[in-house]
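#struct-pred
JK: can someone run the complex with 4'-deoxy-4'-aminopyridoxal-5'-phosphate? inputs below
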Amino acid sequence: MAIRININGAIKEDAFISVLDHGFLFGDSVYEVISTRKNRPCFLDEHLKRLHFSAGEIDLTIPFDDFWFGEQIDRTLADAANQESYIRIVVTRGVGDINIDPSTCHSPLVLIYVTPAHVYPIEWYENGIHLSIVSVQRNSKNALNPSIKTGNYLNNVLAKIESGRLGTDDALMLNSLGYLTESTTSNFFFVRDGGLMTPSLDCGILAGITRDIVIRLSRENGFRVEEGCWPIEILESADEMFLTGSVKHLMPVTRLDSKVVGGGKPGPITRSLICLYENFLEQFE
Ligand code: PMP
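RT: done, structure tokens with the ligand placed:
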């Protein structure tokens, strides 16, 4: 079980970056988190595509192509030799003057972290987690578009802190119009009248790779899926809720603020989708 950091192609057990890196100074960076199956990266093409999208949106040129990323991820995974890994790619603006102008940054820094896989407590899957709706709003699309996966995560950090203060496991955020968006590191789904519902990309969320697969698998298996913008009140009539993300996969939610959801146990549709998703991942074996 080891941690390895690949820094611009050099693999280290520990790595350090400059205090003048704009990723550190201003959160001027983009990133991806990738999980593994049989220690192979899952949905690598989709993650690299989103990494390039994010970089393009902040006018950052990544100096390496997907072939390079594939090779470096393989080398770093082999060197760490974990059973299953957590992979984090970070591309920062690089070193520049101490002001926000990125024009003084001439070489982006590319980091690939490989650590042992993060594993959530099994009880969270068996019993579901407790979410709270927090007062911190999700960033507005016109301020820092949540569809760009940047290293500037303070919005979500603040939401996480608030959810902790409320004694809950994670936060559900609304946008400035009061519509449901997502959790701090996951997309949000709920079940109502037997159909799945999830905030649409228009609400200001990350276009989650797991979200996308869950929508596709649901439709292919006869579940109704609706994407839209909904106020919080709609959750009063929700029978089931869950979160999605590359590391957590599908995580049932059985309490929202003081409300017990669906009798306090993961519901039948959530459980079916967990099976469908886990079976789908078998393709990586
Ligand atoms: N929303 C946010 C804010 C996230 O940080 C993440 C995790 N990357 C997700 C959703 C889930 O995205 P994915 O399924 O691509 O991991």
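RT: quick notes.
The chain is about 25% helix and 30% strand.
Residues 33, 156, 182, 185-187, 206, 208-211, 244-246 surround 4'-deoxy-4'-aminopyridoxal-5'-phosphate (CB under 6 Å).
JK: thanks, will look after standup
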